[in-house]
Fold this protein.
Amino acid sequence: MSFIKLTKIFGYMYQLHRRNFKLYFKHILTPYSEPVVTNSIHWVGHATVVINLFGKIIVTDPVTSINLGQLKRLIRPSLNLASLNIDYILLSHGHMDHMNYNTLRKLNKSAIVIAPKNLRIPLKILRFKNIVLLTPNEIYSDNNIKITALKANHDGRRYPWGIKVDSNSYIIENNEKKIFFAGDTAYTDIYKNFMADIAIMPVGCYKPDEFTEMHCTPQQSFKMFKMTKSKFMIPIHYKTYVLAQDNDEVTCDTLKRINDGSIKMIDIGQTVKF
């Protein structure tokens, strides 16, 4: 590793820990508490959303811990996921801010868990009974739902050693309703022309510029959303933890500036009906 790259890494880590240290002296915010209703999407925080699709409850990347290691949550989770009768859990990849063991340990063990191939062992250890492992372009379907995995542009390794592994995005379908959950991704042109009702898109964790190798900027997220030809975009993956050097206010300002009416900007704890 070059000296210049090593210096950049140490500089980034210093700024990250400095910003998070300041949070320990700030009051954790209280979210909205709008109810989950039939055919709706509720943002719990970060990449965790609760989707009610014709009465079936789907939870994406469940993370409700106040702390991720030394990283403190900015705002409380809007729901106690353990109180829900969850039907499906979608995991995009194994990073700690998307696959939180403390959260998963408390959830309905009979839920059908859809995840990339490399997550079999931790899910078995967590005692989930129904595990479905999908590689990109594979499909899970039953009498209630159809879920298609797509390849996200994101290295899904939980730790920075070993071989690279897939991260998944998902298309969720039921009774002619279609929802796209991108998970975590850098810019890619793979999400073309599948026309969902709502696309749930990440917009945070893109600074410094090197982070765009793994994450998309708000502008790139919007461009990928437009590629899908979906009706509306819900931005997520911000406002919850400080994981990088981007600023949520700047992200919000950018989204407002590029919004042509198709971006539904919501706060944590709010519900969008479709």
Observations:
- The longest helix spans residues 3-23.
- The chain has a mean pLDDT of 93.
- The chain is about 20% helix and 25% strand.
- The radius of gyration is 18 Å.
